[in-house]
Amino acid sequence: MVDAVRAQAAVGRRPDADNASPAARRSTELTQADTIYASYTTQVDGRPAAAGAMLITSGARGNASNAPILVSVRFLDGTFLRELSAWSLIDSPRYSRSPVARPGEATVPFLNERGKPVGYIFWKPELPGSRILGVLGPLVATLILVMISLMGLLVRSLWRSGHTLAGLVVDLRASEAQAQHLAFHDVLTGLPNRALFEGRLEQALARARRGESCTILALDLDRFKQVNDTLGHSAGDTLIREFAARLSRIVRAMDTVARIGGDEFTILLCDTSRVEDIDLVCERILAAVRQPFELLGSAVYVGVSIGVVLVPDVGTDRGDLMRKADIALYRAKSEGRDCYRTFTPSMDETIKLRSEIEEDLRRALANGNELEVHYQAEVDAATGTIVGLEALVRWLHPTRGLMLPEQFIPIAEETGLISVLGEGVLAEACRVARNCPGLFIAVNLSAIQFRSSDLAVRLIAIARNAGCDPRQIELELTESVLLDEDDTARTTLIALREAGFRIALDDFGTGYSSLSYLREFKVDKIKIDRSFTQNLGHDAEAAAIVTSVVTLGHAMGLTVTAEGVESRAQMQLLAAAGCNELQGFLFSRALPENAIAALLASNAKLRDVA
Fold first, then answer.
1. Does the domain made of 363-609 have the CATH classification 1.10.357.10?
2. CA torsion sign, 193 to 199 to 205 to 210?
3. CATH number of 194-343
4. pLDDT by residue (tens digit) across 166-218?
5. What is the pTM (predicted TM-score) of this model?
6. Cα 65-68-73 angle, rounded to 5 deg
């Protein structure tokens, strides 16, 4: 290589392109035109290398043969390959003397000055797609992994949502079922309510119009209010639930027991036509209710009143049938309770009559010109002297004529008109008492009036406004007021007695006639019922009862009055038994206020009769 440079220097020129060797021709592309050099590949100590020699001149061609020559060697393995990889971004370059390439490798030979290969450089060429894949591959893989994860989360979420949705659907259906149940069933007892009962009744009536039969029972517990008032509403609820359970055990699966409200129940007996079967069901209900109810550790006894309607015997209209069932129920209550009554057309006429009387009574109370207070004398049994008068209301109806209290007082009690009527009678009696200072006036009070907590205040105000001394007024009440054991009634009676009113117990002997409530309520007088008086002289038992009542009354320091005295024999027997006062037609009928003066004037004659 040095000799080649010296030879070129001797002739004074570079080899031209046509005569130069391949190595020389390739090298002159990187040098100036007058540079004298030579280069080629070879092996140095068994390693591939690129060697070059270049003449160093000062610009003058003379004596160039003695000019220095720069020789350089560059090994083509090791560091060169690493730099080549870094500079040219060639992947995995390697040198080998063997021309055999590995899979996926490209190769280029190293040629010596004679054009013979002395070795080979191999590398893995990068295809455009591979480069892009190398750059984008991780990102795409990451995106794919993220998408797979998101899809997994979505699938999991959908799976959970599916289960949640299924749960929500189940809960919704359960809620709908519960709402449906509550809409048609009573919360306390679980029985069908009014809506469900009416629906089933309509179905039964549709069958009845095709010839089938059914029966409606309307039920109402007796003395339920007393249980609520004495033991509390919790005990009342327990009673209602147990009553419902007893009813359900009596009827068939095809029948319907429903709670309408409060202590009111209805029963629909399907496919029933035999009166004997219906009577048997009613008797079983009565017997079941007569068994004691265990409430708060106490045995409580109640009863039940039942109204019966036979379908289609009395119609097939639902509203009309329920009205008739209530009419029959009312008849059962009015005839003693704890019994059953079957509806008949005559009951409906009675109800219509009562409705007409109620309407007329309201009008009479508003007008104030049809109702009058009459007075019947009460006399001293020993002297025959008039000691008092009982105020009795009479109604001169414009079309029905004179109506007695038993014809309209019960209606006034049921409709709430009794308070207005009773207080009106008391006001008239107080006015009369003020004009008759030597007499007492007896006024009847209804048990219904005692349900009002301010009754005492109102009665005291009436006496005060009339200018009447309350000690002249004797308030008559029945045993039912005392038997209810109502704190309101007890408080009212105490307030009335403290104000000066006297308290008389009417119709004594026909009810419980308990000594305990006579002592507890401290009444002033007991009045023997007229039924015992009328049997005197004919019934030894009646005489014994009268004697016992008189003895009891005197032992307790009470005045004893006998009602219904119509003959001198009765008068003498009652006086002999020790009665203090007598009252009856023998002495006087009930007279209007304008006849009182004449009655008192004839008192001497009454004493002669006595």
1. no
2. negative
3. 3.30.70.270
4. 666 666 676 666 666 678 889 899 999 999 999 999 999 999 999 899 999 99
5. 0.55
6. 120
